Amino acid sequence: MAKSPLIKANKKIAEKLYGAHHAVADTVVSGFNSVADKFVDEFLTKDDESVEEARKRLSEEERTRKEESKQRLEEQQERQKDIIEHTHVPEMPHHPHTHR
């Protein structure tokens, strides 16, 4: 079945837009990564550490902080659970003027 000229034109336009979109996205990501690398190099590297080494170290430090935070939360929840289980709440005395 032959395609109409309009369908062919639309397909070409779509292909060009798709390619242009990816070119713009690649340029934006590349620019962002360049700025991010300069920031890491200027403010986050230690001694003779490379940007890649700093990123790896920062990632590891973040993972460690998250694990420690999770463990502290679990310990706190366990302590709260123990407190609740071991707390005796006395029943309120029946007041003669209160209807139950």
Explain this structure:
This protein has a domain of 49 residues. 0% of the residues are buried. It has 100 residues and is mainly α. The model has no long low-confidence stretch (mean pLDDT 92). It is 76% helix and 0% strand. It is built from two helices and no strands. α1 packs across α2. The chain starts with a helix and ends in a 14-residue tail after the last helix. It is elongated, with a radius of gyration of 31 Å.
Helix content: over 70%
- H/E series, N to C? HH
- Structural class given helices, strands, pairing? mainly alpha
Proportion of residues in β-strands: under 5%
Spans where pLDDT lies below 50 across 5 or more residues = none
The largest sheet, given as strand count, sense and whether it forms a barrel, is: none
Rough outline: elongated
> Averaging pLDDT over every residue, what do you get?
92
Report the span from N to C terminus.
Answer: 84 Å
Q: Can I get a quick summary?
A:
With 100 residues, this protein is mainly α.
Produce the secondary structure layout:
Blueprint: H1 5-44, H2 51-86
Helix pairs in contact: 1-2
Features:
single chain, elongated, 2 helices, 100 residues, mainly alpha
